[in-house]
User: What shape does this take?
Amino acid sequence: MTDAVLEVKNLSLRFRGRYRFLRGRAASVKALDAVSFSLGRGDTLAVIGESGSGKTSLLRAIMGLLPLREGDIELWGKSARSMSADERSDIRRRCGYVLQDPYSSLPPTMSVMDAVTEPWNIVHHGRGKREEGLSRARSLLSEMKLPEDLWPSRVRYSLSGGQRQRVAVARALILEPELLLCDEPTAMQDISTRGEVIEVLQRRVGAGMAMVLVTHDLFLARRAARRGIVLNRGMIVDAGGTEQLLLNPSHEYTRALVAALPRI
Ligand SMILES: Nc1ncnc2c1ncn2[C@@H]1O[C@H](COP(=O)(O)OP(=O)(O)OP(=O)(O)O)[C@@H](O)[C@H]1O
Ligand SMILES: [Mg+2]
Assistant: This one.
């Protein structure tokens, strides 16, 4: 694939247990087990799985936030195993990351506007650039349908969980990432605002951004992504088109996930 953005190769990840003394030997959790997939430009991959299946760990590993011991992660053809510190920071700049918890991911004492422009101001300097950052933030916040009277407010005092999530998405988009990692970006939205957030993301994907979308919502996965992988205890137990995963799941675990969906 010439336009490969991300390639995860046989990635395994283990966390050492914290309470070793209770068990007498090092207990460890296998958070990821031989996970492989690839993603190209303008491609979206849904990562589906129940709580504790390893979804967040996968995104953190891709961002280089966890030590890489087994397997490899290639970003734009560059192996994480042989990246220099400069290459790593250049690659981080090309990636956006929307953390799962919008309460800890935004600087609480900043205003909404400052929280969105901060990544821009770190990279771009000068008065003209500052203006451009503000104008980008304004258009992103309008696109995210965040009421204008909240823009000058402080994140800590004035925003609901769903509003924080929309600010977090705007903050992740301001540098126009080529790869966006989204961890349950709509978990706190209601049905209508969920659709709006997904539309904003899909517009970027239409323009060439690659996206990994973590969700435990199979309907959302089907709406936002053509392909998906299903994780269970860190292993890919099912993979394929999201349409097929939802309507005609072949694996027992996916069938159980689908059977647990609410029906009208
Ligand atoms: N920092 C850590 N230290 C120890 N164990 C961890 C750590 N982070 C995750 N784990 C373990 O790794 C496994 C996968 O966790 P992860 O957060 O990736 O799950 P998840 O699929 O994102 O779940 P959720 O849907 O609840 O967010 C879990 O068993 C968890 O307890
Ligand atoms: Mg998670």
User: Anything to note?
Assistant: Residues 69 and 211 are 24 Å apart (CA to CA).
